[in-house]
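Q: Mind making up any chain with structure tokens?
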Amino acid sequence: MNKKGFVQVLVGVGILALLFYKIDFHKVAEVVRGVNIFLFALAGVSYLCYNLFMAYRLSYLLRKMGVGEGVGNSVSLKFSDSFFAHFAGMLASDVTPGRVGFFLVPYFLRNRTGCRISEGMAAILAPQGIEFILKVAGGFVGLVFFAGVISVDGSGAGGVGGASLLLPLCVGGGVFLGLGAVILWVVWTAESRSTNFLAKIPFAFVRRFEAEFQKMKEKSFSIRETVPLILVIYFVCWVLLAVQWQLIGLSLGVTAAELGFLAYFLLHPLITILRFVPVTVSGLGLMEGATAVVFELLGVGPAVGLSFALLVRLNMILVDCVGLKGVFSSEFRLKNNA
């Protein structure tokens, strides 16, 4: 771990320590001890289903580009390859600032199948750009939905008012809306425009990847017609993540009357935007603090909110550990060209 990463871990741990101090660690521990393990496990199943859909999307887009179907039969692609590569990327995203570890998926794919980095990147980059925009849109809808609560001047957990959340949420939302738009512009605009843009970047090491960049653009154009499918899968995944959150809430004793499915459905994109802010590792501390504040403002209580956020993170990491097989796999199933 480099110096910057170490500092980001310390910042996240420091935020968590402050939250435990303000909310009272003993109250949080008491809430966590009462968790319903069966419902917690069901939440993990819902999250696993989410990842299955994401792995299917990756596999489908790769095959849409012709990977594993022809191309001199040089690449073998099975669903299990996409499955473990996707999970490996999710696990990497759990321990990296801004969840940038997910962009290692093309490397995990190359190690398992031998497909080009440009092909793997095309399969995740454009969908990721669409997801960024949809996440911001969902977060905005959630912000409007909870406006009557979040905009109040009263204090939340640790003396933080709901209005204090608006600035980081708006900044984070603006950044990712712009990032999503830039990604789609880069991969789906005319070659001359993006090439001219790349040529203006004053770093020689970036321009060294121009050839791979052009291959990635070529592959990205071949999957533009799959946007409707990408949107459908994203919506299904959003529902599955909301189910995961509600099951974890129920496992802590939060009734449907206190927080219903719609609340979790809209809270998810609103709060998880903070996981992409590269101040700490995967938003460590930021997401937990925001959840504690929002839960208190919704009348549930900050101790439950902090416990909920911690269990959500634990639930994801436990399931994402499936990706350890993809991370440590050294298997190269390459075939000789015909």
Observations:
- The mean pLDDT is 81.
